[in-house]
């Protein structure tokens, strides 16, 4: 699920357009849209359909906003092995990956990150030492780690 402003700009958790009011409720300061694909197998990325989720001025509890940002999961990394010189394009499949802003191979960030959909991201593996490293998807809803997810040969 992706959240967007009226102009199409993606909303991150840290920049969610709201202002504090008394207690835990938050006043939404800009219209917030939810996106979803037209349907499975239609070949179109998430974001093809958008629906108004919250109109500016709506008051919702902070806990409701927090539930909108579901932490991602990593189901598969393909290929899971590559040369120590780096340069391999790696596809990461999972769920709720549309908020990913970086993919780290051990402590080193990958390059050329492309969020294909909420279920898929692609990144170029950096150079690394021979052996297995953790793959970490840096996400505003919380980082996701696949222990030993990529092996440098």
From TrEMBL:
SUPFAM superfamilies, per database record: E set domains
Occurrences of domain IPT/TIG (ranges): 71-153
GO terms classed as biological process: carbohydrate metabolic process
Xref: Pfam families: TIG
Top-level taxon in the UniProt lineage: Bacteria
Keyword ATP-binding in annotation: no
Keyword Ribosomal protein among record annotations: no
Cross-referenced InterPro entries: Ig-like_fold (IPR013783), Ig_E-set (IPR014756), IPT_dom (IPR002909)
Keywords: Plasmid
Name this protein carries in UniProt: IPT/TIG domain-containing protein
Organism classification: Bacteria, Bacillati, Actinomycetota, Actinomycetes, Kitasatosporales
